[in-house]
Amino acid sequence: MSNQDQERDIRDRIASQIQAAEHAPSKPISPQDLQTLHLAANRLDQLLQEAADADREALKIAASRLDDLLRKIGKGKKASHPKGQQRKQK
User: Fold this and answer.
1) By CB count within 10 A, which of 18, 23, 47, 64 is most buried?
2) 30-61 burial by CB neighbour count: b if 16+ within 10 A, else e?
3) CA-to-CA distance for 64 and 6, rounded, in angstroms?
4) Which residues, other chains included, contact 73 with Cβ-Cβ below 8 Å and sequence gap of 6+?
5) Using the 8-state DSSP alphabet, how is residue 45 labeled?
6) CB–CB of 44/10 below 8 Å?
7) Model's pTM, two decimal places?
8) Across 23-46, average pLDDT
9) 3-class DSSP state for residue 7?
10) CA-CA distance, 59 to 62, in Å (whole number)?
């Protein structure tokens, strides 16, 4: 599962929980429960940021590889895969 799929899944689950909470009867939240919710929200924010950072890093690497490939093609060199890497087939 890609980072985008994981992020989409998390967002769908969050939206589902929010919708369910809107229809549930409200009751007071204890300070301890509120703190637990804040910690969970902060952790979720951290996980989402890490996923975004990983996606950004993967894009930078892919862009660099593409630049190298285009540079080789521009110089008339044969474009090949780096040593130890094989073309991924879908």
Assistant:
1) 47
2) eeeeeeeeeeeeeeeeeeeeebeeeeeeeeee
3) 25
4) 79
5) H
6) yes
7) 0.50
8) 89
9) helix
10) 5
For residue 11 the two structure tokens come to 């967002």
Answer yes or no: are the C-beta atoms of 7 and 48 closer than 8 Å. yes
Residue written as tokens 């929980």? 17
Report CA-CA distances (Å) from 56 to 4, 25, 39, 61: 11, 41, 26, 9
| Most distant CA pair in the chain, distance | 71
Mean per-residue pLDDT, 53-81: 88
What single-letter amino acid sits at 34? L
Long-range contacts of 3-11 (CB under 8 A, 24+ apart): 3/51, 3/52, 3/54, 3/55, 4/55, 6/51, 7/48, 7/51, 7/52, 10/44, 10/47, 10/48
Q: 59 near 49, Cβ under 8 Å?
A: no
